[in-house]
Structures are given as structure tokens and as C-alpha cells.
Amino acid sequence: MMTHETDLPWEELRPQILSDLRQRRALLHRVGDDLTRMLDDLNEEADATEPRQLVARSNELTFAVRKMIEIMEKFDDWNARNGGALAGNRFDADAARAAIGRRLDRLRAAGGAGELPVGAD
Question: What is the tens place of the pLDDT at every residue in 68-85?
Fold first, then answer.
């Protein structure tokens, strides 16, 4: 079977496509790890950070984490619809949300200046 975009047969393209998919999945995981580290850093800096800055940074990180989860879910759905070449590597969005929620709870507890505004988490 030949592909539409190239004259190479599918069998020759498949290893490269799988490699590209694995690289993209690894990149998404690194982004997730970086965001987790940033949340941890923010938690450690909470006592020394002005509450308004803490809320703003928390909101930015929360948005970024949600976006990353959305992208990973779309990636996993696409992968499942297209033969599941990476099916053994599904992202656990529920576990990620729970871990992020725990970090945000620690931020709230460490802030000492009151609760984060509604919608900040």
C-alpha cells in the first residue's frame, strides 16, 4: 500500500511514524513534569510570595496544566482511533488532576493570606 503524500510504502514509513509519535508523547510528558515542578516550586515559595502574585501564578499554572491534560487526552484518543500504536502508554488524566489538586491544596494551605478566589483552581 502506498501513502498519498509520498511514494514510499506504508511499511517503510510506519517505523518513522511510530518514532515520531513516541517523541511527541515523551515531549508531552516532559512538559507535564516541568509543570509539576513549577507547581512544587510555587508551593515552596508560597510563604515569601505576595498573595496576589501567588494567585496569578497559580492561575497561570492551572491553565497550563489543564491545557496539557487536554492535549494529552486528544493525543491518546487520536492514537486509539488510529490503531493504537502507543496504546500501552495512555495518559491517566484522572491521576494527573488528583495530583494537581493536591498541590493546589498545599498552595492554599501555605498561602496563609486566605483562600484562592473562586475559579483559581
Answer: 888 888 887 877 776 665
**Nearest of 38, 43, 33, 16 to residue 91 by alpha carbon:** 33
* Beta-carbon contacts of residue 118 (< 8 Å; ≥ 6 apart): none
DSSP summary character for residue 4: S
pTM: 0.53
pLDDT of residue 117: 53
Angle at 74 between CA 84 and CA 9, to 5 degrees: 45
Which amino acid is present at 38?
M
DSSP 57-90: HHHHHHHHHHHHHHHHHHHHHHHHHTT-TTGGG-
